[in-house]
Amino acid sequence: MNKFLEAMEFRHACKEFDNNKSIDEEKFLDILESGRLSPSSMGMEPTRFVIIENTQLKEKLRILCWNQVQITSAAKVVVLKTIIQSLIPPSNYVDSISFRRGKTKQEREAWIQRYGNFLESMQAKGINVENWGQKQAYIAASSMMNCAAYMGIDSCPIEGFDIDGVNQLLGFDTFKESVALILTFGYRIKEQQKRYRLNLNELVEYR
Ligand SMILES: Cc1cc2nc3c(=O)[nH]c(=O)nc-3n(C[C@H](O)[C@H](O)[C@H](O)COP(=O)(O)O)c2cc1C
Questions:
Q1: Domain total for the chain?
Q2: Contact 46/176 with Cβ under 8 angstroms?
């Protein structure tokens, strides 16, 4: 088995961390780096990483996360939020990203036009900018959990939370930004539970 798959075998949704164990800062920076390096649609990089360190804030967050113990036992809690309003052209943010896409003003304008059309086509399918941004956060989250597993660090993604409550607690202006997903990292206190997965032949088809 290759090293990446070994890390994926090691990764599981850790239900409780050993709160006596901390994560080495260098390793945590690697986890954040894997989030930063993750792909995003149109290269828009809409995900931001909010690290929750304050103990009282963690306790309040836990209540909003269905009281899940991962939030207070984890060595690191990272709230992945998506930016919203600045993704909609015209905006300074879209302009700044367009600078990486074209050398001339004409090229940049053409790219922004294509990007705007793409957002509109998503909207027509019922996917608004916030939903689209959240999808990108999930890609970063996957990289971060696998990167952590590669270094022997456990994780649990947390989607079970009161979205409005978390946005309010963290002071997110929901016109501009919103929580997408929460990631918890640390070291397991119990053995990994049995893993259930469908067989590959139930998931794959060739045409
Ligand atoms: C987007 C997402 C959200 C999740 N939210 C939670 C959660 O709130 N609490 C929890 O204990 N597990 C959560 N999980 C973990 C899943 O239940 C778990 O990944 C799945 O049961 C498979 O188990 P495994 O990851 O241990 O292989 C979440 C997983 C994903 C991908």
A1: 1
A2: no
Quote the CA–CA distance of 123 and 86 in Å, as a whole number. Answer: 16
Stretch 81-106: mean pLDDT, rounded?
93
**Residue at 146 is within a domain:** yes
Domain membership of residue 201 (yes or no) is no
Does ligand 1 lie within 6 Å of residue 13's CB atom? Answer: yes
Any domain includes 199: no
pLDDT tens for 41-89 read 999 999 999 999 999 999 999 999 999 999 999 999 999 999 999 999 9
How much is the average pLDDT of 169-177?
A: 98
Residue whose C-alpha is closest to residue 87's, from 176, 172, 179: 176
The domain that contains 129 carries what CATH number?
3.40.109.10
Q: Which of 136, 159, 192 to mutate to test the pocket of ligand 1 (most atoms within 8 A of CB)?
A: 159
